[in-house]
Amino acid sequence: MRKTFTDQGLEERFQKDGYVEVPFLTSKEVEMLKTYYFDSLNESGGRLGPEDEKHQSNQEITYDFTFIDKNSDYKQQVFDMITNAFMKRVDDYLFDYKPIIANFIRKKEDGGEVPLHQNWAFADEHKCATVSIWCPLVDSNKENGTLEVVPGSHKRYGEVRGPMIKSELAGI
Ligand SMILES: O=C(O)CCC(=O)C(=O)O
């Protein structure tokens, strides 16, 4: 199995719990990304929904992820901004990783919940782990949509995870 973290203590915690908490961006970098987020918001094309894929669903999406934005130029711009800021720090922690997705996530205060899920499997997880870096740009709490994790749940569910594949977590 390929190593994920350069630090052995972090590696062991990550393998056991599926997550670690570490200091990440400086307050200057947070301010820069926040300013960029609001300044570029008018370029967003709005979020793609099931109807855009001619898929019938009564599930309402209540949050914005850049990943599902209709404007691919905007997505590319956001990817570049975020990865540029993050890569300075990523190499302090992770062992030879490269970014494949970068998102701003905006949740509404009333009902913007992101449902329980495990991220898509982007690699053969017998050989390596993929990593999501979640970094709030405002103080986050239960009221405004912090992230909650279930320690140790990362190796418990399906290996094949992606779009159009029913999640084992769907009924929970
Ligand atoms: O912020 C959330 O609630 C979920 C975020 C998430 O799924 C991710 O960053 O991969």
Q: What's the helix count?
A: 3
Average residue-wise pLDDT? 91
What is the rounded distance between the termini?
A: 30 Å
Which ions, cofactors or small ligands are bound in this entry? 2-oxoglutaric acid
Strand tally:
2
Strand order of the largest sheet: 1-2
Series of H and E elements? HHEHE
Write up what this structure looks like.
The structure is a single chain. The chain has 172 residues and is mostly helical. The chain has one domain. Helix content is 27%, strand content 3%. It has three helices and two strands. The chain has helices at residues 8-17, 27-40, 72-93, and strands spanning 63-65, 105-107. The chain has a two-stranded antiparallel ribbon. The longest helix has 22 residues, at 72-93. Residues 105, 114, 119, 132, 134, 147 line the site of 2-oxoglutaric acid. Residues 105, 114, 119, 132, 134, 147 line the site of 2-oxoglutaric acid (AKG).
Structure, briefly:
With 172 residues, this protein is mostly helical. It contains 3 helices and 2 strands. It has one domain.
Topology:
Elements: H1 8-17, H2 27-40, E1 63-65, H3 72-93, E2 105-107
Antiparallel strand pairs: 1-2
Helix pairs in contact: 2-3
